[in-house]
Amino acid sequence: MSQYPHLxxxxxxxxxxxxxxxxxxxxVTTVIAPTGxxxxxxxxxxxxxxxxxxxxxxxxxxxxxxxxxxxYWSGLCRALRDYPVLAGQLTALGFPKSREDVxxxxxxxxAALSETTxxxxxxxxxxxCITDSxxxxxxxxxxxxxxxxxxxILLSRSRIFDEADLFRLGxxxxxxxxxxxxxxxxxxxxxxxxxxxxLEKTQAGQLARVSEGWIALIYLMFCSFLQRREWRFETLDxxxxxxxxxxxxxxxxxxxxxxxNSLPDxxxxxxxxxxxQEADCAGLLxxxxxxxxxxxxxxxxxxxxxxxxxxxAIRSFKRLPEAEQAQYQxxxxxxxxxxxxxxxxxLCFEECGDWDGIxxxxxxxxxxxxxxxxFGLVVGWAAACPEEILLRHPAALVAFxxxxxxxxxxxxxxxxxxLFERSMEQNTTLTRTEREQLExxxxxxxxxxxxxxxxxxxxxxxxxxxxxxxxRNPWCQGSPSVIMLYHSECGRLDAxxxxxxxxxxxxxxxxxxxxxxxxxxxxxxxxLMRGRLTDAEIQYHTARxxxxxxxEYSTMIASEFxxxxxAIFKGDPDxxxxxxxxxxxxxxxxxxxxxxxxVELAQAWISALLRQTGEIPPWIRSGDARRIYPLVxxxxxxxxGQVLLAKEEWSAVVARKGELAPACERARFLLCTxxxxxxxxxxxxxxxxxxxxxxxxxxxxxxxxxxGLLLPFAENGDFVSIQLRELQKKGVWPDRIDxxxxxxxxxxxxxKEILRKRFGTNETYGLTGRELEVARLAAQRGTVKEIAxxxxxxxxxxxxxxxxxxxxxxxxxxxxxxxxxxxxxxxxN
Length: 829
Fold this sequence. Notes:
Layout: H1 14-20, E1 28-32, H2 39-53, E2 58-63, H3 69-79, H4 84-93, H5 99-112, E3 120-125, H6 133-143, E4 150-156, H7 163-169, E5 173-176, H8 178-181, H9 185-194, H10 201-211, H11 215-228, H12 238-247, H13 252-260, E6 266-267, H14 269-276, H15 281-291, E7 295-297, E8 303-305, H16 307-317, H17 322-338, H18 342-351, H19 355-365, H20 375-384, H21 387-390, H22 394-406, H23 410-426, H24 432-447, H25 454-461, H26 483-486, H27 493-510, H28 518-529, H29 533-550, H30 553-570, H31 575-589, H32 596-609, H33 618-621, H34 633-646, H35 650-667, H36 670-686, H37 690-704, H38 711-715, H39 717-729, H40 734-759, H41 769-779, H42 784-791, H43 795-808, H44 815-828
Parallel strand pairs: 1-4, 1-5, 2-3, 3-4
Antiparallel strand pairs: 6-8, 7-8
């Protein structure tokens, strides 16, 4: 035994060393074991050895401390302080909420590490703190597309990946488990010897049975032995043992210091000084961290207690008088306020019952950190805070109004608007500019209640004299089209365009040109809808000049979507896609990652119309709505409906109408209603329900023709041209249907060129896969009997398919003439 026993050396068993030394050979390592098994300590040992052996290796460490993906993401961005460009990009991206967002993250990581040859290790500890089931999927998706130099090391008390995901990861994952961390009897003997302690083999056996190889408990028993000079192997509650041998033996001043600094999950020397406010802070922290294995310090100067020590220290803190607890919580809150960490500040103010502090934090945050994940928290504060305190904080009342709008609690929103007015009446400290900015923000929030009524919103906008310099949501709210958002009333499209032209300049003047170009885009989309292609192109170029100047990215997307739709008529094989592809590059370059899904919606629409389903992003094909803004959900669903038509999923299209129609009507998105009826008519006809299809199509015409909206029918001409001709014969909108059929001809001609030149495929005339097979065999002079035999169909079914083929291709005459025309059309095609 050593003359001077010591416990300050890290002990890593030989077995565990062998496992840890393999980390560099795997893209992913998981370390899973209950608390106290030495996961973090083992990785700390490995990190020191790694840096020593590979000096150019980069190790980035992060510990999760709260059940919040938002906090996790903020922590990751801080951990990337040595990669400021990447940190800024990830801040703009936000926490990924879908596979596509993860793919975008992987793209950013790959670009950032493209010139890195040294290994980069990302250690993420305490993953179990986040309970959102998507978080483990996020990590799994990220492991599937890691750039080559990046290795992920994931630590948790509980399982991270399910068995299916582990199977998919296969040999790419090194799994370190509790069995690898647990000490055997022989290893306990080695640990004791390493500490200079005398431990007989039989005693090691007893310790192994009591501790089950749990290194934290073994360490505490070693501490107990040094204090008492005798071995005790009785089973104790580990927190009680921690208090007995680590916490209680400290002098009273150190115990208080430990208690006070248990409030944050991790803290710097500066933060500890702000809490302690005594001259001996640095000395206490240095002594405790060097003498205590349960306090660690990261490379960036963040101290952390081990979970068990923190629990003991928190328990001690709660034994302090309530006034002292409140004092320390207030100090911590003010520290967070100074760091602009307003969520953490508000939570600390809540702990000490400081309502003024909570409202101050809420106001200063400007609604940037209190996102949907924390709406429940904010709503709870609004309900519990005494009214007389609310009235002292007009800026916080404005923040509450926005939360109530997002949670669709309009009565509460209006109540807080009344409170705001009372607050402003009694306030004597605001400057004139501050008053005007707050009053402007209230008017802007009230205008949301009149959303997509242009003149209705403008009533509020005209009252705005100034606005706060906030970063605002995209003006188009994630819609690739302006007219889809703002055409709300049948027969009023021209009036709506006039209102847009009159009202938008008033809004631009007070909002730093938010939404600039929208009026030109809506007029251009109107012209396109009416088949006035030259006028639409002029408006596109007008809008493009505006958005290039103002860098208003949401309307930039809408302008390029307009251009892509125009390009189909021209038969340009590249333009419909290059317009949007270039735009994506622009958005990436300016960190407008939240707007990438809107570009993908536009791409999906173009691909669905061309029936190129392989070009459609998977999240849209699957109907995953997590990436869209809730306000434009009906528009997203109409795009999904067009995708379903392209995939020939007729029943799915019809089944959607029941829920989607009321949603479109509630949102007052009239074009969504029109498209929904056309899509439903197309699907019903494919299912052999012509009468029901004609009813839907007539309803769509009745909604669209008063405004001259031809394009929705032309885009779906492959599906509805037959029914349109039948309706025309019955006297339903005959002149307008002539215009639609002419536009269908132009549209089909352009589409035919794109399909031939870009995709090497032929025009399908809206034929289903089976109908196209029948048509091709008929064009090769196959008889009905021969076609039925070749395709394993009945002869009656073949005759039905041929009738549909001739109808869709507008082929008439004798049977021989129809066959000849069919052969000619398919050959020329």
